[in-house]
Amino acid sequence: MPLEIVRNDITKMKVDAIVNAANTSLLGGGGVDGCIHRAAGRELLEECRTLGGCETGSAKITGGYALPCRYVIHAVGPVWRDGRHGERELLVSCYKTALALAKEHGCRSVAFPLISSGIYGYPKDQALRVAVDTIGSFLLENDMSVCLVVFDRAAYQIGGKLFADIGAYIDDHYVDEHTDKRCERRRRNQLLEEEAAFGSAERADARPTAAACAPGLGDRVKRLDESFSQMLLRKIDEKGLTDAACYKKANIDRKLFSKIRSDVNYKPSKPTALAFAVALELPLAETEELLRKAGFALSHSSKFDVIIEYFIQTGNYNVFEINEALFAFDQSLLGA
Q: Is 33 tagged catalytic?
């Protein structure tokens, strides 16, 4: 998955490079910075002494030493004052510079912390939005796998209003599916049993012979509807997208897309199928049609499905923002 949000210790990430939320001296400090220096060993500090510090909004690269990565990219984020002193621009620059250094050194996988959101005081929901938007824009033009590493739930929050809106939508469309009274469930089950018994008797009277069924079944097998792969490729053409634009907007790896394109009968996972529906900006009815081609359906008994439905209904097809919300509600993310 090109952009993934994970809960982990960044010093344990087995990637080509990890990004350190450093200070301007690059000589270590508290929080993530201190953890990375301790895990890397004294050699990291010795190399950092040769770099002459780093300006806020920029980044420099060193070896990874005892860490399970080849490089450490030291990015210096801004201290939050009030949001009117260029903090956002400096934070965007941090991510852009770090990503450019990773690309320049041939890195195919990079792990970021949420820069400036700790002792530097940048509001976590705003820091998260800068990270997701900047990394997302980079990935639309470049092939790289990026992890946004969150150490614990307290360090992660989406915008209050968005969280409340999604929560309200879930309450309206999900909770009702799980609040039936027992007597109502028993009554429904009894009716279903009676209908099933009646239907079985009717079917027994009207059951055709196997010989009569066979020709119709053979004809149906010959006239199968288009597959998931066929519908996906048709929709890409209808939308005027290139393959690369589609799989990048879907947060899907290029190799997986190649498998789908080359295998007319490819059966994707549900998150993958929905990721393509989001990339194609399909309305709800067409999203459900694409899902059916893969053997799935949207259900109000699934919180994951209700959250996806919320974003489609509100016209927000940004896969990275959708994944923010899915992560916040402890759901699987869209993509491969």
A: yes
On average, the pLDDT of the chain sits at 86
Taking only the tens place, the pLDDT of each residue in 260-279 is: 999 999 999 999 999 999 99
Which of 33, 133, 165, 237 is an active site residue? 33
- Read off φ and ψ for residue 151, nearest 5 degrees: -75, -40
- Mean pLDDT, rounded, for 71-93: 97
**313-317 long-range contacts, Cβ below 8 Å, gap at least 24?**
313/284, 317/278, 317/279, 317/281
Contact 7, 43 (CB under 8 A): no
Q: 20: helix, coil or strand?
A: strand
Spatial distance between the Cα atoms of 227 and 204, rounded to a whole number of angstroms: 34
Kindly give, in sequence order, each residue whose CB lies less than 8 Å from that of residue 73, ignoring residues fewer than 6 positions away: 17, 18, 19, 20, 59, 60, 61, 98, 101, 102, 110
Distances in Å between the Cα of 255 and the Cα atoms of 2, 243, 285 are: 11, 12, 28
Give the single-character DSSP code of 200: H
Where do the domains of the chain lie, and which CATH numbers do they carry? 3-157 (3.40.220.10), 173-182+227-336 (no CATH)
- Give me the sheet containing 59-63, strands edge to edge: 3-7, 145-150, 109-112, 17-22, 71-76, 59-63
| Placement of tokens 């489609």 in the chain | 312
Query: What's the pLDDT at 62?
Result: 98
Contact assessment for residue 60 and residue 51, using Cβ atoms and an 8 Å cutoff? yes
Determine the Cα–Cα distance for residues 275 and 16; give it in Å rounded to an integer: 26
Partnered with residue 21 across adjacent β-strands are: 75
Residue 31: pLDDT band (50, 70, 90) is confident
Q: Count CB atoms within 10 A of the CB of residue 273.
A: 23
Residues 106, 108, 114, 118, CA torsion sign: negative
